[in-house]
Amino acid sequence: MITSIYNSIKQSLKSPAHTYCKILAQNTEKLRRKVLEEAYELIKETLAKPINKHRMVNEFCDLLFHITMVIYHHKIHPKQIKQEMFNRKKPN
């Protein structure tokens, strides 16, 4: 999943068109604020009564996209994330 988003970001940044990804890539402060905003919105949805799963999924997807933009910006490949997750599953 993250690899797919990562590759979409990569393609969008290579595109000659003016894209949302390019706006975020050129303004890291805006990107950081978006990550915080999306994390807050996801947590806020978990507190809603009743919980709206559709909105929660939407907020999760927004957060995942923006976090993936962060790792792309810092040249962290999804394979590194996958490896770290694998390492965490190993018994001590």
UniProtKB/TrEMBL annotation:
UniProt pathway: Amino-acid biosynthesis; L-histidine biosynthesis; L-histidine from 5-phospho-alpha-D-ribose 1-diphosphate: step 2/9
Keyword Cell membrane on entry: no
Pfam families linked to this entry: PRA-PH
Keywords from the UniProt entry: Amino-acid biosynthesis, ATP-binding, Histidine biosynthesis, Hydrolase, Nucleotide-binding
GO molecular function: ATP binding; phosphoribosyl-ATP diphosphatase activity
GO biological process, one term: L-histidine biosynthetic process
Gene3D superfamilies, alphabetized: MazG-like (1.10.287.1080)
Enzyme class: hydrolase
Entry EC number(s): 3.6.1.31
Xref: NCBIfam families: histidine_hisI
The protein, known as: phosphoribosyl-ATP diphosphatase
Organism encoding this protein: Candidatus Vidania fulgoroideorum
Gene, per the UniProt record: hisE
